[in-house]
Amino acid sequence: MKKSTDTLRYLSTKTAWMSFVAGQTQSQIARELEMSQSKVHRLINHALEQGYVTIRIEGGSEELLDLENRLKQSFGLTRCTVASAGMSGRDDHEALLQSVGEAAGHYLSHLLEKKAITQIGVGMGETMSAAVAAMHAAQRSDLKIVSITGSLLRKLSANPLDVVMQMQRKTGGEAYFLPVPYLASSVEERESFQSYQSVQELMELARKSDIFVVGIGSIDAESNLARTQEISAQELNDLRAAGVVGDIAGSFYDIHGRIVETELGRKTVGMRGQELAGRRVLGMAAGLRKTQAVLGVLRSGLIDEIVLDEHLARAVLSEAPVSFGGTS
């Protein structure tokens, strides 16, 4: 009950802010939040009835809404959700992960309830797992859930197969995964895997997704790739030496958002991060250690929607003069 009440409070405050502060019309708000104009009207009325709107917007969300607006304007995003840290400290990773997961899970549930999305391309990561765990159960037998990278890791924690299967159980949809490793042992092995007709067919299916949902990976000992033992400490050091700050869908990039070609990146099986350009892509991240990774991917132009925690949002904005030029 508390979660639904908090969600109503957040949405009513957000629509009121967009209407009274940002000066958007209800039809503009409806398009941006992907809801009916009548629902926007009800949410604004709720904000008025509850006293969230006085001389300024009340309700504890005005700072989050300001962060969202600044990130959208700075990086040309179509949608941004900043999850409240509540009483969580800047280093309370588990609490921040849960907060971002709940916000992202609510958004994904909302998208599926609309039934405009019939296929989701799914990446990997602990934030992805938290988001899917927070999703509401939905009856969507028509939904296709497709892994966009190789689905096999050395450890099962936060891996693509696990995320796809979690979402399948929540929705009753059809799950598809690439039955090959996320990282091949060599470039030649990757090329061999991707020459298989079954893999090519699944990759072609993945490319047809209406939306891609991906975690934003950092380059440190706590990253998903390091914790699942996909890459070694030496390989992490080599990536950092090459200027890499993060990865998305198996592609590595620098702080300016430029793709960095590495031997490790050439071993990734599945879609390349560059293939996400121009598509609808939702990225998610939690924790300050993701600051450079998030800043780099926002500058890359490879994602147009993001969910992140408020500490991370402030850190990204504090480090970022507004300059982003896309991939190269």
From TrEMBL:
It comes from Ruegeria spongiae. Keywords: DNA-binding, Transcription, Transcription regulation. PANTHER family: TRANSCRIPTIONAL REGULATOR LSRR, TRANSCRIPTIONAL REGULATOR-RELATED. Transmembrane segments: none annotated. The lineage of its organism: Bacteria, Pseudomonadati, Pseudomonadota, Alphaproteobacteria, Rhodobacterales. Belongs to the SorC transcriptional regulatory family. Pfam families: Sugar-bind. It comes from the Bacteria. The keyword Zinc does not apply. SUPFAM superfamilies: NagB/RpiA/CoA transferase-like (SSF100950). This is Sugar-binding transcriptional regulator. Residues 62-318 form the Sugar-binding domain. Coiled coil: none annotated.
